Amino acid sequence: MATATMKPATVRFDEGLKSQAVAILDSIGLNLNTYLTLSLRQLVNQRRVPFELAPAPEVPNEETRRAMLLAEAKEMGLVEDDAIRFDNADDAIAYLEAL
Questions:
Q1: What pLDDT, in 10s, does the model give residues 79-90?
Q2: Which of 30-34, 37-41, 66-70, 79-83 is predicted least confidently?
Q3: What is the rounded CA–CA span in Å between residue 68 and residue 49?
Q4: In this structure, are residues 48 and 40 in contact, taking their beta carbons and an 8 Å threshold?
Q5: What is the pLDDT of residue 81?
Q6: Greatest extent of the chain over all pairs of C-alpha atoms, in Å
Q7: Mapped to the 3 state alphabet, what secondary structure does the chain carry?
Q8: Out of 2-6, 44-48, 51-55, which region has the weakest mean confidence (pLDDT)?
Q9: Are 42 and 35 in contact (CB under 8 A)?
């Protein structure tokens, strides 16, 4: 078996992302270099990205979170629901046109 020639590489990471990743890897006894080598080895072996790519979970912003809390409080009767209600679309359209 031939010996592999190791070459240095420079990889740039967001400082916060790297810190979080290193903390997780430390907790399982790996360092960043070993993890990257494992990941690259699996990429080559499987000829695909070796993990599922998924978007980050959506987190409501502060305005949306407050609106959700207010809607829940109204539903539970903790806050008076003073929203305007309409019995039909024509009344709603007439109201909007009058604004």
A1: 998 889 999 999
A2: 79-83
A3: 37
A4: no
A5: 87
A6: 83
A7: CCCCCCCCCCCCCCHHHHHHHHHHHHHCCCCHHHHHHHHHHHHHHHCCCCCCCCCCCCCCCHHHHHHHHHHHHHHCCCCCCCCCCCCCHHHHHHHHHHC
A8: 2-6
A9: no
Q: How many residues are present in the chain?
A: 99
Alpha carbons 51 and 42: distance in angstroms, whole number:
10
- Please check whether residue 71 is in contact with residue 82, taking contact to mean a CB–CB distance below 8 angstroms: no
The whole-angstrom separation of Cα 99 and Cα 92 is 11
Instruction: Please say if the pLDDT value at position 1 is more than 60.
Output: no
Distance between CA atoms of residues 68 and 73, nearest Å: 9
Q: Which residues contact 25 (CB under 8 A, 6 or more apart)?
A: 31, 32, 34, 35
| CA distances in angstroms from 40 to 44, 45, 51, 55, 78, listed in the order given | 6, 9, 12, 21, 55
